[in-house]
Amino acid sequence: MKKALLLLASLLPAAAWAHPGHNGIGLFHHLNDLLPIIALVIIVAGVMLWKKRS
Question: pLDDT higher for 20 or 37?
Fold first, then answer.
């Protein structure tokens, strides 16, 4: 139970401070850096699902 709570707390954006050199707070302070990759993965997955269904 302790591990589950710790995992849940570590996944919350406000659970951790950004490392030095950043002004962001939380685990998701690199979201702007990762957003193009995340968008590409979503687009590719959508195209694959669309092709599979048609």
Answer: 37
Residue type, 10: S
Name the amino acid, one letter, at 27. L
Q: Domain limits of the chain?
A: 2-53
Q: What is the pTM of this model?
A: 0.52
Mean pLDDT value across the chain: 75
Nearest to 30 by CA among 10, 7, 6, 13: 13
Q: Is the predicted pLDDT of residue 13 greater than 90, yes or no? A: no
